[in-house]
Known about the structure:
By secondary structure, chain A is an alpha+beta fold. Chain A has helices spanning 17-25, 64-68, 94-98, 119-122, 129-133, 150-157; strands at 3-8, 36-44, 47-55, 74-76, 82-84, 105-106, 112-113, 139-143, 160-161, 173-176. The two termini of chain B are 18 Å apart.
Amino acid sequence: MRYAMAVDTKKCVGCSDCVVACQTENNVPIGYCRDWIVEVTDGTYPQLEMEIRSERCNHCDNSPCVRCCPTGASHYSDGGIVLVTKDMCIGCGACIASCPYDARYPHPDGYVDKCTFCIHRVQKGQNPACVEVCPTKCLYFGDLDDPNSDVSKVLQKRKFKTLIPEAGTKPQLYFLI
Amino acid sequence: MKEELIVSGRMNYKVDPTLHIWGWEIPLYLFLGGLAAGVLFFAALYYLRGKDKEYQAAVKWVPMITPFLLVIGLIALFYDLNHKLYFWRLYTSINLQSPMSWGAWALLVITPLSVVWSATYVREAFPFWKWPFAWLDTLEDFFIKNRTVLAWIMIVYASILGIYTGILLSAFNSRPLWNTSILGPLFLVSGLSAGAALIMMLSNNPLERKRFSQIDLMLIGIEIFLIIHMFMGFRASTEVQIEAAALFLGGPYTLPFWIFAVFLGMVLPAFLEIWELRGNHIPAYIPAILILCGNIALRFIIVYAGQSSRYLY
């Protein structure tokens, strides 16, 4: 089992519904977010290209955050989902510094917090909250080992990229281009 | 020219717009840890070489400061933790891939060791010293008899403490400035240099002062070589590391780094020491204080600049 997510950059309009859904579902403290929108404009005027991405933790196969955690609080869970065990985390910040995507933040209660792929929903067979609410249906979630999952099917059909593959993290968040 | 404009909706505290998860506590600890490692290294080294009569400050007196240095460093580390009451979790697991984990375990050995080492010399410093319990006398005798074993353990753990602070940072491949294996040796050598400077400053034996001044001169030479080597490596590396080097070669950290860490902290004290070794009189505390301040500057600048170096995507 290997959970992954695909983000269709051609369909994403940057409405931030995924961000709000995540904050509501996971009770994210005010002023913080576990997922976010990035808008990139490339080129020279008037030939410009724009890409909108809904970003979050990449749940990497080779996670620097899991590697550098001194207590083992950061760990791989079911299907490669990277999680933090709250009462093992000392809040040292090593994982925050180690993440090339800056996907983690210090929760006001002290421990480090991040996207969980809504594991509490996934284990019940539901999609993560962000995927569920997306009005343009640009987010695909599922098991890469299952060829019939939403994410496997879309990755078979479409071209895609990952972010900073050169960092060697083997990210599992795919961007359809 | 191709341009790229990135607008991010993320604004997480201590993460955006640039990472600043580590403030003054971490570089202060890196300095104190490196300094303590340097002092304990020389104490063990000269004890093992049988020079404890000649280099009394190095072997006996200056190590008495190291428990305080380490404790202040540990308090700074504890203060930096966001989830403080869970700090003991460091000691419920060993993660060999995490330098912070083996650093935590090394500190658990070297801190008590520095106390024990100092305690075995307390009677020599204060002849009328009396331990409050009789079993402490027995313990003292035991440790005095086994000083050679203590020294061997100390020289190993002092080296680990000195080098791990650099490896800790170099293990983060997400921060291109830190992601160089030179940082471990650089922090080790600079810690040894700080230790030698402190011994030189506090010793009242001219021969010992001269020896540590020579050692410091050699260590500064190695430091400067490592720094040049580090920048050569960056310049010959990928774009992110070229940009990381640019922080010091024209970027915002250029002046603080080259003036405070390199010129005032290495080049000037090296000149003063050469001047002194040629027979001119310079008070030992001037180069020593410059070296110690340069050491603090080096760690603050590397920790802060590293957090502002990143991949852009």
